[in-house]
Amino acid sequence: MKGSMQPRRFRIDKVYWETDDTFTHELIPIDEGRFFNFHPGQFNMIYIFGVGEIPISICGDPDINTRLYHTTRVVGDVTKRKQHLKVGDLLGIRGPFGNGWPVEKAKGRDVVVIAGGIGLAPLRPIIYHFLNHRDDYESITLIYGTRSPDKILYRKELEEWSSRLDMDVSVTVDAAGRTWKGPVGVVTKLIPRIISNPDNSTAFVCGPEIMMRFTAVELLKRNFAEQNIFLSMERNHKCGIGFCGHCQLGSYFLCKDGPVFSYDKLKSYLSLKEV
Amino acid sequence: MENLEKILSEHPFFRDLDEDSLNLIVGCASNVRFEKDDMIIREGDKADKFYIIREGSVALEIQGPGKGKITIDTLSDGEILGWSWLFPPYHWRFDGHAQDRVRAIGLDGKCLREKCEENHDLGYELLKRFSQIIDQRLQATRLQLLDIYGIPS
Amino acid sequence: MYQEVDMAKLNPESVVILQKDDLAKLLNILRSHSYQTIGPTLRENAIVYDEIQGMEDLPIGWTDSQEKGSYRLEKRNDDAYFGYNVGPYSWKTYLSPARVRVCNASRSENGFNVVQETGNAPNYAFIGVRPCDVKAIKILDKVFINDFCVDNVYGNRRKQSFIVAVNCTEAGNTCFCSSMGTGPKSEEGFDLCLTEIVTEQSHFFVTEIGSDKALEVLEALSPQTASESEIKEAERRIENAAQSMGRNLNTDRIHDLMFDNYRHPQWDDIAERCLSCANCTMVCPTCFCNTVEEKTDLEGDNAERWRIWDSCFTLEYSYIHGGSVRHSTKSRYRQWMTHKLASWHDQFDTSGCVGCGRCITWCPVGIDITEEVSAIRNSSTVPEETVDQPR
């Protein structure tokens, strides 16, 4: 598999529209092997026949390897085409690529998951993982910020998680109408309210780069150690195996060294523009 | 009054404030309670108070362009509502709408303004603390303005 | 005067003499070993690498004159085979081609089928590889053949390649291999390495043997071992090239120099001149970036996936949803140069620059990487916010 440009074919079994512009494909492998194993935070290169490949993070439960889930937001040419695929259509998959979230580093600790916008997708597997192995972790907190109430992803899961007694979920939006009863404001606003024990906490953050930058600053203000803050970075990907050069961030290739890094490994780049 | 003093001294906004200043502030404070959907402050009204929210949450709202009221921020437990009392002409710029039952300490702005004029140490302390909050909200507002989750044009 | 050589006594460290005519024979032997022989040849007023059938295809008696943004061919006053420096092509053209099909896909009843290209990689013998380019191939080896992954396209071509290097006895005006420690003599990474010696009386090649494969190829030629004086003469000529380098690049702490100067005003200065044309990345023997394009037929029933060279100078290169990460020319030039001279060390434990000078010669506005490095070095103050290198 490694080094191969040959995609495995998967059939679209279900399509869920999460919002007006974001949908999730549930996929079943049809080529060699019925299983697809991955680590939370990894991504795949998704091939659409006649169109091309795009990198998309895996957003399903890492303990389920018979089905593959990808949430896509319609923003570019490939994603525009992808939205027209129907149940039964085929997709090609190469992957999984990237290092993923270092869940083992959070064992026995409080975990704080902070998502911004579509950044919740690459974090969903880690939440599944924490809940599947609930006893391995202390408190679990999810803070999720998005644009407006109608852009909230995974409503069903969020409701389920909110109703759990062993998990704390907060969702905030940048602006809302009167029907929204939850908090309004940027995601960083919720951090001071929720975190109590920074020494024993590990944070996993994903969202637009600027959101991660501000979030990291807020976490540092709350005495989080730099090496306990993990961010997942985004760059262009064409190959996923370190040959195309597109995913470079300073000295890193995100496809093999990342996309997840602790803050201390990133801070010098985050303070610079256009790196 | 003793109760109020305790509540205020334990509130992060007043943390490490000297006792004399705290006493002056307590003199302008009162316990208040709002029911769900009460308008705590209204855009354009005289801003003669600010609130330290003890429990509940308040939506800061403004009339959006043609689409009814938009909530631009929510404030809840431990946060401060209102600083228009500090700046002339002392009018609220937003509506403050109780999203649920809200318990708060109300502080009389006019009373505090006068005390600050007389006692600049108190004035400096208060302004320092408010500036921090204003700074935080300004930064948050800038982030919101960027519309970072929106589809880029 | 010469002793006949017992091939059994030759080993990959031996130095032998190949006469002018031996070289033609060598080419034939390689071709009979089913190698496709690629070497320098004249085309479109430049010396480029293409298939050569015999020595007559070489640019015999030609040389090149290179300067910032300038390349001219000139006649030599001898019949040297390799009397010129590097041209606009490099060997990556053959090892990781500018366009190569990686997959074929076709519509099927229930969707599509996709098959990875498994065509046999060509057997290349590269004739006349300069030391800087031998090093460039070694660098590409690290990029494409590593513990993380092996690239099929490059890996298969490289595995089969036969390298006949040629040491430089003259340096070009844009050359700075001495600074980069990559030339003008090749130390390793070749099968054979020639040093050409042309005098009025003689024309021969002091030849180092670098592999068992080369021993096998040489067997039919029964070459004589080189005498001490011949080896000395070769060394003298190489030293002459070392002394006449057209450019110099001070590599002292270059990694930190680049990383500490992300905010240096020189980048703005470069951006005023740089056209973002990507020439430097195309001619660079180590620039490896590529992208994949999907080509479909008119019916939309068949698609091909082609890997093509890409450049960090394009806007699309760093595109993520929301726009390009590096939207200014300044940031793209900085990315290129910092990658070459600094991040490459972190990524592949070597410089990405071999000092071949191609980027200087082929830059349409004459941007000179050696000048830009000294401009930064000479006016570099450690900024207040020193950028820590994350590794």
TrEMBL record, chain B:
This is Cyclic nucleotide-binding domain-containing protein. It comes from the Bacteria. Residues 13-82 form the Cyclic nucleotide-binding domain. InterPro entries: cAMP-dep_PK_reg_su-like, cNMP-bd_CS, cNMP-bd_dom, cNMP-bd_dom_sf, RmlC-like_jellyroll. CDD domains: CAP_ED. Pfam families: cNMP_binding. It comes from Rhodohalobacter sulfatireducens.
